[in-house]
Amino acid sequence: MAENTPEPAATLLSSLTVAEDATATPAATAPPSAPTTAVVGTASPPPLQLFNSMTKKKEPFVPRVEGKVGMYVCGVTPYDFSHVGHARAYVAFDVLYRYLKFLGYEVEYVRNFTDIDDKIIKRANQNGETVTDLSSRFIAEFLADVTELQCLPPTHEPRVTEHIDNIIDLIKEIIKNDKAYVVDGDVYFSVDNFPEYLSLSGRILDHNRAGSRVAVDTRKRNPADFALWKAAKEGEPSWESPWGDGRPGWHIECSAMSAHYLGHVFDIHGGGKDLIFPHHENELAQSRAAYPESEVKCWMHNGFINIDDQKMSKSVNNFFTIRDIITLYHPLALRFFLMRTHYKSDANHSDKALEIASDRVYYIYQTLYDCDEVVSLHREENISVPVPAEEQKLIDDHNKAFLESMSDDLRTTDVLDGFMELLKAINGNLNDLKKLQQKLEQQKKKQQQQKKQQQKQQRPQKQPENHIQALNALGAEIKHKLSILGLMPPSPLAEVLKQLKDKALKRAGLTEESLSEQIEKRIAARNNKQFDVSDQIRKELAGKGIALMDEPTGTVWRPCERE
Fold first, then answer.
1. Contact 475, 38 (CB under 8 A)
2. What mean pLDDT, rounded, does the chain reach?
3. Rg of the chain (C-alpha set)
4. 83: which strand partners?
5. Cβ atoms of 256 and 241 closer than 8 Å
6. Res. 456: pLDDT tops 80
7. 3-state secondary structure at position 272
């Protein structure tokens, strides 16, 4: 597009446009005081429905104890930095955790750490450090990552090594009930003695495999039997047990820890869909073999993060760590990207998808910032007019749609799209208020008689206070719902916008100084009528994810999806 023609606003997810009068972000802002207390939507949420992997259908969620929820989510094996596939799981279940709390439930949320495992032992030996040092270091790194993603801390974060006694007691019960056997210090679960085996995954035993983490052991009665306890090997950590020194198998840990914190019957058990078999299948078998009354009311599983249609995984070395991504993209852009796809579906990782997410969150926060700036100018005024009917209907409709989507198995894709009408309404009110204020200012300069005659003939549909109340209410509704989703920044919006711009510069390989030089060159070219030169500069920057906007006060820039 030639430079002497108006430039299009940056697009967001193909249909979202930036307000033409967007401005550069100041260095800091203080939260404004509202003219009056804004009332967000007040509709009651419909009954919550969740997809149960056991029954393969959505079901009304009815907790075991009214008003309380017990939820267990399988955690990481901390031997390296966590990848984006891990982030997918923990953001998905953080959204559920937050929504349950919003609905008024008292949630006991348990997320474990598998801090003893073959991979940890191997990596620790390679590094020349202890298993405890390695696992503790990467637990700390994991917690730093999920904090950046605004995942709330669970109620409990147990480590396997802290619950060896619970694990041994559970294995004793399984052996007592003739569902496990001992071979040379190893203890194996007998799938032949547990007819319910594979009820969760729906697999056929003949098509079963022993498990991805262990080699087939010819001492087993059935190749599908899996280890509950592993006899000690030289150079590996071990604990005393009735069967000799050793350590737990992979699956038994979660059966023991979930029972310890939540009891034998609890409401929700979650994890990635790759855990359905063998981990959750074996977990279910162990728990019920020891205590037949054991039950999970709802099994929930999230989809994968794929790269080129292949699951992201450390085992095939096709992964990006959370740390890799948030070096170039804001953590809330990554969270938005992860929530953009329904939790049960697979999401495809790409730079383009992350850029779109980053662009969208920038638009959201810039719009809220602009809204706050205008509302703050009227914080001392005693504005008491009601929210205009048009905006109140938008808010009520948005609240109703939000609750319906979230209560229908957490349809976050629809929820995120639903913010767009409110954001457009904010920008519309900002533009209309600006025009109205300019018009009223012009009227003041005219003679009193002319002013009265003009106001009589053409009275504005809305007065400034109507727009202020509309902005106040629209902003409050968006912030309220973003907070429920974990997408409302804890720091001032101006600071977050600056962070988003800094990340965009880093992705573009630019600095503020080098970008300013490009902007000055473009301005000089425009002044000299060299529109082909100025157009080329604009296009080159747009190709790097930097959008230029010419305003009365000068040229400003904002991040955008690369053209």
1. yes
2. 89
3. 29
4. 321
5. no
6. no
7. strand
Q: Which residues contact 1 (CB under 8 A, 6 or more apart)?
A: 7, 8, 535
Question: What's the token pair of residue 104?
Answer: 């008024």
> 3-class SS at 222?
coil
Give the start-end residues of each E strand in 292-437. Answer: 295-302, 305-307, 310-311, 347-348
User: Is 50 exceeded by the pLDDT of residue 345?
Assistant: yes
Angle between helices 464-485 and 84-102 (to 10 degrees): 120
The CA distance from 212 to 209, in Å, is 8
Note the pTM of the prediction, 2 decimals.
Answer: 0.89
Task: Name the token pair of 317.
Answer: 């070395």
| Residue 504 Cα distances to 388, 391, 481, angstroms | 38, 33, 26
CA 239 – CA 228 distance, rounded (Å): 14
Whether residue 517 has pLDDT greater than 50: yes
Torsion of CA 170, 176, 177, 179, to 10 degrees: 70
Measure the CA–CA gap between 488 and 492, rounded to whole angstroms: 10
Give me the residues paired with residue 65 across strands.
68
What three-state secondary structure class fits 458?
A: coil
DSSP 8-state code for residue 181:
E
* Residue-level length of the chain: 563
Half-sphere exposure of 250 (CA within 13 A, CB side): 22
Cα separation, 130 vs 136, whole angstroms: 10
Give every CB contact of residue 404 below 8 A, 6+ residues apart in sequence.
46
Q: What is the dihedral of CA 323, 324, 330, 333, to 10 degrees?
A: -100
C-alpha to C-alpha distance for 345 and 215, rounded to whole angstroms = 31
Select from 355, 352, 331, 371 the least CA-distant residue to 90.
331
DSSP code for 321:
B
CB under 8 A, 24+ apart: contacts of 488-496: 489/332, 489/365, 490/150, 492/28, 492/29, 492/30, 492/31, 493/29, 493/365, 493/368, 493/369, 493/372, 494/25, 494/26, 494/27, 494/28, 494/29, 494/369, 495/28, 496/330, 496/332, 496/365
164 token code pair: 């060896």
What distance in Å separates the CA atoms of residue 380 and residue 286, rounded to the nearest whole number?
A: 64
pLDDT tens-digit profile of 15-65? 222 222 233 333 333 333 334 445 566 789 999 999 999 999 999 999 999
DSSP letter at 57?
E
Strand runs labelled E in 393-508: none
Asked whether 354 and 325 are in contact (CB, 8 A), the reply is: yes
Dihedral angle sign, alpha carbons of residues 504, 508, 510, 514 = negative
The answer, yes or no, to whether residue 503 has pLDDT greater than 60, is yes
